[in-house]
Amino acid sequence: MFTAPDGRRFQIGSLLTLPGRMRFGDSVWNDRGAGAGPIWIRIDLARQLISVFRGADEIGTAVIVYGSDGKATPTGAFPVLGRERLHRSTLYDADMPYTLWLTRDGVAIHASTVEEGRATHGCVGLPMDFAQRLFAVARRGDVAFIVPASPLGEDGRLPAHST
Predict the structure, then answer these.
(1) Strand 57-63 relative to strand 49-54: parallel, antiparallel, unpaired?
(2) Which single residue of 86, 114, 122, 162 has CA 20 to 30 Å from 153?
(3) How far apart are CA 15 and CA 72, in angstroms?
């Protein structure tokens, strides 16, 4: 059972066979046999993992990089606002392939170099092959739940929603 930051509860299971401990750059995808249902995404900043679900079935997982202290990744529930296959950030002079926009101020899920010690400017960075697969199934309106790196927010409570 997963309780989302906005209070929704999801019964979940996994179709994935993991190779053991996941390392930077690792990803697994298996949507064969997945049931019907909407795509939704869980991003666990504490574990540096993304999980993609179709209905109750986990169909993909990958190790991620995310925002640094200077530009932290926001937590909460974020519907995908838009998609862009080939985006280039003019602010950071960086390619952001397979972009799924989460906020109006530029936070997104996108392909990135996923290596130990790397970070983003608030976005969620994925291995390229995983980003391609996610981009192929995710649609505008699908929800990404970003769970904080610390289980407690700055006020000492579990964050309910932030944008």
Answers:
(1) antiparallel
(2) 114
(3) 31
**Residue 67 DSSP symbol:** B
- Kindly compute the dihedral angle of the four CA atoms of residues 78, 81, 83, 89, in this order, to the nearest 10 degrees: -80
Q: pLDDT (tens digit, 9 = 90+) per residue, 46-67?
A: 999 999 999 989 999 999 999 9
Q: Which of 13, 25, 6 is nearest to 161 (CA)?
A: 6
Q: What is the pLDDT of residues 62-105, one digit of tens each?
A: 999 999 868 889 999 999 999 988 766 766 667 778 999 999 98
* pTM: predicted TM-score of the whole model, two decimal places: 0.82
> How many C-beta atoms lie closer than 10 Å to residue 118's C-beta?
13
